[in-house]
């Protein structure tokens, strides 16, 4: 884990400023409405840090990840990675930028080409980016397989010949073969058996230290994020509602939605206060978000102000920001 002082002084590797990603949706004849998947998000990831991004399905986490990867065009705002602004680079600079960030996907089978051997899956990026050729490619592939706990003979097998955990190790190896600075892990263990999840999480932590990586760890499960993150950002309906060091988030959650997520963790040792506030009702549609605070339709602390005015992220403690009109009372 990073030292708190280091977190505040390190220059950001990833810097996202007021990012918006909206998708037009046809509602009827000549009528369109914007689905605000990401709605004004600002966050940073510092070198050597793991930032956990949590929230329920549909809150915009994966869309944010795709925007960072350059696979979705932002509607507004800015994304800078290692000093380069994503979305404005042209080849060959865009190729160099692609080597700085890679992604581990949720489904380890769907993300691998079933017609390619593991060797080709790992070798193609090396050749495409001109990093290695000839026998050096095979050496790099073998070394990366060893790092993720696979054997050299696995290189000539196809994805269907592996278990789910082994396929995710291949996905991790593919993400790391270009030696990126930032790795986005989008629900990396949610599709795996419970018995395998701890192995993959431990592998990611070992690789982070060995290769000096930074992670953006995306998950709906705060229990997973608790074990790997230096800081945590909580997202709801396209907006950030709370950010802070993982200890601040879990010990003194300032937003009622964060408290609801923590209450859902099956942990007998959670603070009693964290279990007392649970969200009720369904998540509103991103096409028709509620006015004011988006969470007020499910919040046990709702007051008139919550409906009338949108809260902004305000500091409640050192590096602990909460978007709630009554954050102090909710802690």
Care to describe what's here?
This protein is an alpha/beta fold. It folds into 2 domains: 244 residues, P-loop containing nucleotide triphosphate hydrolases (Rossmann fold, 3-Layer(aba) Sandwich); 79 residues, no CATH class. 32% of the residues lie in helices and 24% in strands. It is built from 12 helices and 12 strands. The strands form 2 sheets. Strands 6-7-8-3-9-10-12-11 form an 8-stranded mixed sheet, with helices on both faces. Strands 2-1-4-5 form a 4-stranded antiparallel sheet. α4 crosses α5 and α6 runs parallel beside α7. The N terminus is likely disordered.
* Major sheet summary line: 8 strands, mixed
How many β strands by DSSP? 12
Q: What overall form do the CA principal axes indicate?
A: globular
Percent helix range: 25-40%
Strand content: 15-25%
Radius of gyration using CA atoms only = 21 Å
Indicate the CATH class of the largest domain: Alpha Beta
Give the CATH superfamily of the largest domain. Answer: P-loop containing nucleotide triphosphate hydrolases
Report the span from N to C terminus.
Answer: 25 Å
Please give the CATH architecture of the largest domain.
3-Layer(aba) Sandwich
> How do the strands line up in the largest sheet?
6-7-8-3-9-10-12-11
